[in-house]
């Protein structure tokens, strides 16, 4: 699988674990990108975007954002566990 493919899989598998403010920030990154907004749609309680229209650079930025937020949450959890 390509790096892009791996990053998209990671995003899809982990986006649900982000806090609401983090998901809003994720959406803001998406909206502020050069991606045409016609490929970004509200769907149910969330937002969907057509990944084939996202540049490799945008996918990488979104991946790094999700990864960093998951890492922050993991670090907080680990610090709480080590205190107990």
Model description:
The protein is mainly alpha-helical and 84 residues long. The chain contains three helices and two strands, in the order H-H-E-E-H. It has helices at residues 3-14, 20-31, 56-83, and strands spanning 40-43, 46-49. Strands 1-2 form a two-stranded antiparallel ribbon. Strand 1 (40-43) and strand 2 form a beta hairpin. Helix 1 (3-14) crosses helix 3 and helix 2 packs antiparallel against helix 3. The radius of gyration is 14 Å and the shape is globular.
Q: Evaluate the radius of gyration.
A: 14 Å
Helix-residue proportion = 55-70%
Shape: globular
Model regions low in confidence, pLDDT < 50 over at least 5 residues: none
Number of strands: 2
Structural class: mainly alpha
Distance between the termini: 41 Å
Brief summary of the model shown:
The chain is mainly α and 84 residues long.
What's the structural blueprint in terms of helices and strands?
Elements: H1 3-14, H2 20-31, E1 40-43, E2 46-49, H3 56-83
Antiparallel strand pairs: 1-2
């Amino acid at each position: 699988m390509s790096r892009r493919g791996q990053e998209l899989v990671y995003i899809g598998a982990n986006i649900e674990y982000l806090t609401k403010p983090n998901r809003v920030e994720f959406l803001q990154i998406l909206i502020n990108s050069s991606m045409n907004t016609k490929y970004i749609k509200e769907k149910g309680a969330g937002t969907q975007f057509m990944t084939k229209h996202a540049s490799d650079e945008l996918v990488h930025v979104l991946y790094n954002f999700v990864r960093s937020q998951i890492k922050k949450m993991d670090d907080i959890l680990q610090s709480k566990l080590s205190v107990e």
